[in-house]
Design a protein that fits this description.
The protein is 51% helix and 23% strand. It is of the alpha+beta class.
């Protein structure tokens, strides 16, 4: 009986972890691509397609904390957010991953590659 109980608890635990991971992968933000992201470091203008379910009100509520660093224009019909840096420095660009994370992003699609927020910071913001 004890073995059955432990097995049941173990299966429920693994099931919960698997569902959480699947949920996490679903929160993907799509970039315009590698070339555009590299150009954005110079221009200070970034364009992302945010995960489905994000509303204009969500974006407004989350972006209001970063107005001293960037402006955000969001088109709810296409889910496209255009971010423009106020001061385009490495330090000020660090608000981008904070904003994306607040919007539920866990991964970013760059061309055909899925990268983490940490990889995005290292490759495209520094």
């Amino acid at each position: 009986m004890k073995r059955l109980l432990y097995t049941l608890v173990l299966l429920v635990g693994f099931g919960s972890v698997a569902m959480a991971q699947a949920d996490r992968r679903a929160n993907i933000t799509i970039s315009e691509g590698n070339t555009e992201l590299l150009a954005s470091k110079t221009s200070g203008e970034y364009t992302f397609t945010l995960p489905e379910g994000i509303t204009g009100e969500d974006v407004a509520n989350k972006s209001k904390y970063y107005t001293s660093s960037m402006t955000v224009v969001f088109d709810e019909s296409t889910q496209v957010a255009q971010l423009t840096m106020v001061d385009n420095t490495v330090q000020s660009r660090y608000v981008i991953p904070r904003f994306l994370t607040a919007c539920g992003t866990h991964n970013i699609r760059v061309d055909d590659t899925l990268i983490t927020i940490d990889e995005f910071i290292e490759d495209y913001l520094k």
